[in-house]
């Protein structure tokens, strides 16, 4: 695979990640997933081309951290639902005998709803979001290291800029709109960075496969 092919794959992948978040284009994460795979393939080939394993390895560590964080967060939410939902249902359906099929014939009593009744579920969701936030920072930290290496080897400073913006976005993701906006912009900068790569002088333009 040539360096030109690698940079095209990476650029297209980053563009897919950029446009995939747009509501009218989004297809339940499929576009973003395809884009992520293409970017990872491109980073792997760049790591081979520049003989710098950190370009791919750090990106891989970031991807693994993101997956682990997502799994733990999902598990926390499921556990929270399983442990608090039954108690909550007993609160709003005082006459419920525990038979799930009987719920449709019962009338809820909203007067029994209190902060104490919903607090366990809210706490579980909050804990899941906190875990997701921490792992998002860890993931983007490794991705930034990958892109710093890519920037140093390729001479394209936008790689480093995209990585920094992505990390800041992850830290500020608690400020929902601002954090996601920065991450979204970083994907566009990453695409531009890939397209700016030029073959090294005096080296082969092919990438080992």
- Which stretches of 5+ consecutive residues score pLDDT under 50? 201-209
Count of alpha/pi helices: 6
- Domains counted in the coordinates: how many? 1
Structural class: mainly alpha
* H/E element order: HHHHHH
* Rounded radius of gyration (Å): 23 Å
Total strands: the figure is 0
User: Biggest sheet, open or closed, and with what strands and sense?
Assistant: none
Strand content: under 5%
Let me know the average pLDDT.
85
What general form does the structure show?
elongated
Give the N-to-C terminal Cα separation.
7 Å
Q: Which bin fits the share of residues in helices?
A: over 70%
What keywords describe this structure?
209 residues; mainly alpha; 6 helices; 72% helix; disordered C terminus
Please give a structural write-up.
The chain has 209 residues and is mainly alpha-helical. It has one domain (3-195). Helices cover 72% and strands 0% of the residues. The protein has six helices and no strands. The chain has helices at residues 3-19, 30-49, 54-92, 115-154, 157-171, 176-195. α4 (115-154) packs antiparallel against α5 (157-171). The longest helix has 40 residues, at 115-154. It is elongated, with a radius of gyration of 23 Å. It starts with a helix and ends in a 14-residue tail after the last helix. The model is unreliable at 201-209 (pLDDT under 50).
């Amino acid at each position: 695979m040539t360096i030109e092919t690698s940079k095209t794959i990476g650029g297209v992948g980053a563009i897919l990640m950029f446009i995939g978040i747009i509501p009218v284009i989004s297809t339940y994460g499929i576009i973003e997933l395809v884009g992520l795979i293409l970017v990872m393939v491109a980073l792997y080939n760049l790591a081979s081309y520049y003989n710098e394993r950190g370009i791919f390895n750090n990106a891989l560590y970031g991807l693994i951290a993101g997956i682990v964080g997502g799994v733990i967060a999902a598990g926390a939410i499921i556990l929270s639902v399983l442990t608090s939902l039954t108690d909550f249902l007993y609160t709003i359906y005082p006459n419920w005998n525990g038979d799930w099929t009987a719920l449709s014939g019962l009338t809820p009593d909203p007067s029994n709803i209190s902060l104490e009744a919903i607090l366990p579920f809210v706490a579980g969701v909050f804990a899941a979001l906190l875990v997701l936030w921490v792992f998002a920072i860890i993931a983007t930290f490794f991705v930034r290291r990958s892109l710093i290496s890519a920037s140093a080897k390729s001479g394209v400073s936008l790689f480093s800029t995209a990585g920094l913006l992505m990390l800041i976005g992850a830290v500020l993701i608690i400020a929902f709109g601002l954090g996601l906006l920065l991450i979204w912009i970083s994907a566009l900068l990453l695409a531009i960075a890939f397209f700016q790569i030029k073959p090294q002088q005096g080296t082969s333009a092919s990438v080992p496969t």
